[in-house]
C-alpha cells in the first residue's frame, strides 16, 4: 500500500521511498588542469555535508540512476564508458571525446509498473572548442491514494479497526512527478585527465506542492593505456538543496563514484570484451543497497561485463547489492541501436523485475534519411 505522511510529504511503497530534496546556489570555477591538491579538495567536499541537517536520502536518485539499458544491464556501471548522447548523466568528462552525434530515448518500468521513468538526450552541435549535451529525465507514480477523510471511523480514534472500513467514494488520488534537466559540457582538446561539468535543474511535484533545486556535477576521466581507463563522478559538488512551496528545505549530499573499465579481445575467438567495476561513497545514512556501512558512510559496489559477439550483437550482464543480477543485449544496425535490460528482483525480494529499453539514433544517418544537410 502507498501512503502519505503530512506535513513532511514522504510517500512510500514497501521498502521504497520518495522524499523531498534540496540546494545552495554556489559553484567555484574549474581550471583546465586539475592539480593533485585540487583533487584532494574535491574529495574533501564529499565529507563536508556530514553536518548538514535534513539530508534527503532519496531525492537525488532521479540523476543518480537515470539509466540507459546498456548501463542497467551491466549492474548500473558507466562512469568510465561512453553512453552516446546520455554520457553526461554518467560522466560529463567523456562528453568531449570524439563520438558520433546521437539522440537517445529510454523507458523503464520498475516495481511491477508502479514507477515509470523516461530519458531523452541529444548531442548539441558538432563544432567548436566545447562539446555539449542536453538531457531530460522524468520519473513518476500515478494515482497515489490519499485515504485521509475516507475512513468510516466509528470510535473517532483515527485508526482502521475490524468493524470499520474505507469509503471508496471519499478516497482522493494524486500524482508524484520528478523532472530533471541536465546540460553537460567538456573541452574537446584535453591531454591527460579530462574533465567535464554538468548543471542540472531538479523539479519535484507532489500533489499540489512544488520543489525546485539547482545542482552541479564534476566528472574526471583518463585513458590509462593497455585498454584500461578510469573515471570519477562527483555529484552535487556544492550540495544540492531543493526549496519547496511549503517553505521547507532539504539537502542532497555529494556522492563520489569511481570506476575502472578494461577493454580487451579474447584470444583465439577474437571477440571484444569490456569489464567495468565501480564504487560509490555517500554520507546520508543506512541504505538498502549498501555493500559496506560505517556510521553515516556507506559504500555501494557495482560490476558489469559486455561481450561483443559480432559487430551487431552484444551480450551484457552485471550485478549490485540492490539488484543481485542483471542481463541485457544490444542490437546495432548502424543508423540506430536498440538496447534492452532485465533486472531481477531486488535484494529484499519485495518487487517484481525491472525492464528497460533504449533507442539510440545516430544523427548523421537521420539527417541523410530526412535529406537534411
SSE order and pairing:
Blueprint: E1 3-5, E2 10-13, E3 16-18, H1 36-47, H2 61-64, H3 69-73, H4 87-90, E4 102-110, E5 115-124, E6 130-146, E7 151-152, E8 165-166, E9 172-187, E10 194-206, E11 209-225, E12 228-235, E13 240-244, E14 249-252, E15 255-265, E16 272-282, E17 292-294, E18 297-308, E19 313-320, E20 326-332, E21 336-343, E22 354-362, H5 363-370
Antiparallel strand pairs: 1-2, 2-3, 4-5, 4-22, 5-6, 6-9, 7-8, 9-10, 10-11, 11-12, 11-13, 12-15, 13-14, 15-16, 16-18, 17-18, 18-19, 19-20, 20-21, 21-22
What report would you give on this structure?
With 373 residues, the protein is mainly beta. The protein has one domain: Porin (Beta Barrel), CATH 2.40.160. The protein is 9% helix and 49% strand. The strands form three sheets. It has a 14-stranded antiparallel barrel. The chain has a three-stranded antiparallel sheet with strand order 1-2-3, with no helix packed on it. Strand 15 and strand 16 form a beta hairpin. It is globular and about 75 Å long. The relative contact order is 0.19. The N terminus is likely disordered.
Question: What's this model, at a glance?
Answer:
With 373 residues, this protein is mainly beta. The chain is 9% helix and 49% strand.
In the CATH hierarchy, the architecture is Beta Barrel
User: CATH topology, what is it called?
Assistant: Porin
Rounded mean pLDDT is: 79
Helix content: under 10%
Structural class label? mainly beta
**Can you tell me the overall shape?**
globular
N- and C-termini, Cα separation: 53 Å
Q: Count every beta strand, where a strand is a DSSP E run of 2 or more residues.
A: 22
The tally of domains stands at 1
CATH class group = Mainly Beta
As a whole number of angstroms, the C-alpha radius of gyration is: 22 Å
Proportion of strand residues? over 45%
Strand order of the largest sheet: 4-5-6-9-10-11-12-15-16-18-19-20-21-22
Low-confidence stretches: 1-55
Please summarize the sheet with the most strands: 14 strands, antiparallel, barrel
Number of helices: 5
Order of helices and strands: EEEHHHHEEEEEEEEEEEEEEEEEEEH
Oligomer: single chain
